[in-house]
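User: quick one, fold this
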Amino acid sequence: MKIYGKRILFTLFMVLIIFLTHADSDSVKTGRKFLNKRFLLIIDFGYLSCPLCVQSLSEFTGMINKRGLEKSILGILTFEREGDESGFEKYIKIMEKRLRGFIIGNKIKFPIILDRYGVFKNFSKNSTTLIFFNYRSKTIKKYIFPLNKVQIKEIFQEE
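Assistant:
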């Protein structure tokens, strides 16, 4: 395995360990059923140029907010890096500003991190990917947006 691949796997492993082991007092107050579920939402910036795609994503984030699952989800925004490394920091600032606007415009209450180094790019090529961790059933599932009704029911079913 190349060194780059090892770095990606290590970074992914560390993010998942930190994210999956996080259970604070606010999460406990929302109810035990939600402690068994965690979500990793990987959004490709190019996906946001499609109005129907954005609508599907907005509906999903609305369901997260409505059910009080903000502490159970981590969002990651991936994007295509421009070839010019000299303007990279300026480009990052533009992407951060776009991300803030997207979060405010869609009333998103959970954190979304900008994937500055492309670690998660392979998980969401021109789409949005949801990785769903269900501790109770000991399963990990991957969903590609837009989600259909069966998938939504499966994700949000009560345990």
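User: anything notable?
Assistant: The first helix runs from residue 3 to 21.
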